[in-house]
TrEMBL record, chains A, B:
Residues 18-126 form the Acyl-ACP thioesterase N-terminal hotdog domain. Residues 160-227 form the Acyl-ACP thioesterase-like C-terminal domain. Belongs to the acyl-ACP thioesterase family. The lineage of its organism: Bacteria, Pseudomonadati, Bacteroidota, Bacteroidia, Bacteroidales. Keywords: Fatty acid biosynthesis, Fatty acid metabolism, Hydrolase, Lipid biosynthesis, Lipid metabolism, Transit peptide. GO terms for molecular function: acyl carrier activity; fatty acyl-[ACP] hydrolase activity. This is Acyl-[acyl-carrier-protein] thioesterase. The keyword Hydrolase applies.
Length: 249, 249
């Protein structure tokens, strides 16, 4: 199979209500585009969620790491390329490049996905999916950013607590993966976003939150410009962890 | 000018993170698409925000009313048509039709816009804009829903209070028009959305909210299935008012 068919490329424009007060695309919207591209790419190659659902399986996002030199600005065209880097028995690595209107790669992302059975909620063996045909799409395109890391948070007191509302909930009845990104970035004062930009952003999705859950956000300042966040439900179960690394503009 | 050139039509797909727990497009996302279509249509005809900004003017959304028989569902294609219904000295009426994948009109929307000077923040005379050329686009396409109405709220105690955060703020430094829609719809319990759908939704934008403002949401149950909401900043100044009318599914 030729390389072109392994890499999907999708075009976007940074819409006015999708940029922050700096006029730059928000991380939540970029995350949404990345996940949509994953869906487009998989669907076009026969292993999208709709096909999997027919067989009572679904994709579950486990990790996401995004690293950027810059963000697209309001009204700017950009595109996202995506491809499969590895397929293991229980996980697959899908990578992304964010490409500006001049064709320069301004950022990359890495994601890790599992396939689970809708009946048992247990992970399924990817190597046997459609007789292993997903492996035909594995591609050695470079993705020069670090893999998602292990995140540990020591903070004992939450920095913010909120209740999951109607707008937070997705079609599966879970707190939507993108909303966590927005709520986490809302922990930081706007002044920080005036002076700094997000250089690297990581999410590790651990368990599902539901409507009415009390979401507590615990945050460590791990070093200058680096923050580790843990979101717990009803003060106990960990729902997700995140790492946010800022850089001077 | 022929009718085709007066009506803009734009295609969308209901993305997975843009639908609610019922699998239906959220009102916030629909509102975002409507405002984008207004921008596309105006830009293509020479009176978009970028052109106006060069002359130190901008468009300001004053009213929005959306009425629907149904919402597009996850992964469904739909399109939005938009046209200018009226141009007055200080306001222009722009209407919309929401068209499902079979070409059926499943909803309509009305919006009212003013043009203001970026220097004085005062309204500008639309009849003299580009020698009145915006009038060339006025179109008598039907829009069989009521005009935005007057909304009065009597409630003395807020139903919710929140502080405007980083994700709420748009490129102008104001609380983003779409976020108000989401916050307002989050006032209702998820059970309501299980049994009812939003038949009509109205927003009247009155003043600007800023980062850190304490937004208080006052809500009257005007009649069964009809709610009137007022959002005030720091307990005083009215930022916007909304009317939400539910119907049985």
């Amino acid at each position: 199979m030729n390389r072109e068919n392994k890499i999907g490329s999708y075009h976007f424009v940074a819409e006015p209500f999708h940029v922050d007060f700096n006029g730059e695309l928000t991380m939540g919207v970029l995350g949404n585009h990345l996940l949509n591209c994953a869906g487009f790419h998989a669907t076009e190659r026969g292993f999208g969620i709709a096909t999997l659902n027919e067989e009572n399986y679904t994709w579950v996002l486990s990790r996401l790491a995004i690293e950027l030199d810059e963000m697209p600005c309001q009204y700017e065209d950009f595109s996202i390329q995506t491809w499969v880097e590895n397929v293991y028995r229980l996980f697959t690595d899908r990578n992304f490049a964010i490409v500006d209107k001049e064709g320069r790669k301004i950022g990359y992302a890495r994601s890790v996905w599992a396939m689970i059975s809708l009946n048992t909620r247990k992970p399924a063996d990817l190597l046997t999916l459609h007789e292993g045909s997903i492996m035909d799409y594995v591609c050695d395109e470079p993705c020069p950013i670090e893999k998602p890391s292990r995140i540990k948070v020591a903070a004992k007191e939450p920095q913010a607590v909120l209740t999951a509302k109607y707008s937070d909930i997705d079609i599966n009845g879970h707190v939507n993966s993108i909303r966590y990104i927005e709520h986490i970035l809302d922990l930081f004062p706007i002044e920080l976003y005036r002076e700094k930009r997000i250089r690297r952003f990581e999410m590790a999705y651990v368990a599902e939150g539901y409507y009415g859950d009390k979401l507590s956000f615990f945050c460590d300042e791990a070093s200058e410009d680096e923050y580790h966040i843990e979101v717990r439900k009803n003060g106990e179960e960990v729902l997700c962890r995140s790492k946010v690394i800022f850089a001077d503009k």
